[in-house]
Amino acid sequence: MIASMLRFLTAGESHGPQLTVIIEGLPSGLEISEEDLRRDLARRQGGHGRGGRQKIETDFARIVSGVRGGYTIGSPVTLILENKDHVNWLAQMTPAKDGFEPKPVTRLRPGHADLAGALKYGHTDIRNVLERSSARETATRVAAGGFARKLLGEFGFEGADPDRISVEELEASPVRCPDPGASTRMVAAIDEAAERGDTLGGTFRVVARGVPPGLGSYVHWDRKLDGRLAQAVMSINAVKGVEFGAGFVGAARPGSEFHDEIDFQGGRFRHLTNRAGGLTGGVTNGEPIDLRVAIKPISTMKKPMSSIDLKTKEKTEAHYERSDVCVVPAAGVIGEAVVALTVAEAFLEKFGGDSMPEVDRNYRAYMESIAQ
Fold this sequence. Notes:
Layout: E1 7-11, E2 18-24, H1 34-45, H2 53-56, E3 62-65, E4 67-68, E5 71-72, E6 77-82, H3 90-93, H4 114-121, H5 127-133, H6 138-153, E7 158-159, H7 167-171, H8 180-196, E8 202-209, H9 225-234, E9 239-244, H10 247-250, E10 262-265, E11 268-271, E12 279-280, E13 283-284, E14 289-295, E15 306-308, E16 315-317, H11 328-351, H12 356-370
Antiparallel strand pairs: 1-2, 2-6, 3-6, 4-5, 7-8, 8-14, 9-14, 10-11, 12-13, 15-16
Helix pairs in contact: 1-6, 1-11, 6-11, 9-11
């Protein structure tokens, strides 16, 4: 595996004092501000079906290193997101022995990381698992994704629907669906599930336009960009499937109805369709990266499922922790962030330099070399 030029590390628990993310490998000279990160953090907290936690937190990423005077300076960037709900969890979440007053959670939740995590780490209190396996952690990835989006935006990348539906049009829907009729039905289904004490999953789509050909590699399995994108997306809480372009539907077609015919117009190669989702052989082919993601229903339900108590081994109802009914609209924002981070990593691998002017020179020289 080649050394990563762009990487990030997140830390923090759901009810701890803060979430922290450190981003390494950003070139100097990228203009960025805390305001640039605010919009997507707010989008992550929105969407019909979100729970009470979103009314407590108003996520704001504070930049504490790596940026000076509005520009990155080449050193690691550190972001801090405070957990406002922590004041209600001081005794349960203190790192010190003194004053520690835990309320052990032992009722396992089907579909959650509770059992696997407790068995792996030898925990007898499930809170040690659920605090970190909580989707609260994804706020840090959205914040880090803001830097990646800003970087890619400098080179013409855009995120939108292939039919050129704007972000504003999508945001007008409470479930981020461009079809008004379908949007209304989705809202109704979420409300019905909430009344039953149940949860719902679904799918979301991420599209990246303006992607140059040549990102990723067919040379080694671990450098294939579609594989890296799949891993990044699958790392999002509750995600259970990902497909590129025509995906599973395309698998049922003959080759003559699947593969994208190649054309040459305006001094560049292009494809007449994009059933491959913008990647062939693990490499971007100049078409939009287009992927669809399946997310399972939230594991924590008001009407809990039957389970087992970790300590007594007796049958019980699963533990209920304040939760959402449906997070598909929010998960789409997280998907955008991890796709941006992964594509930005591949972009810097190919065009990287220590400063934005150097990256720009490398990028422009390559684009000129493939123009005919």
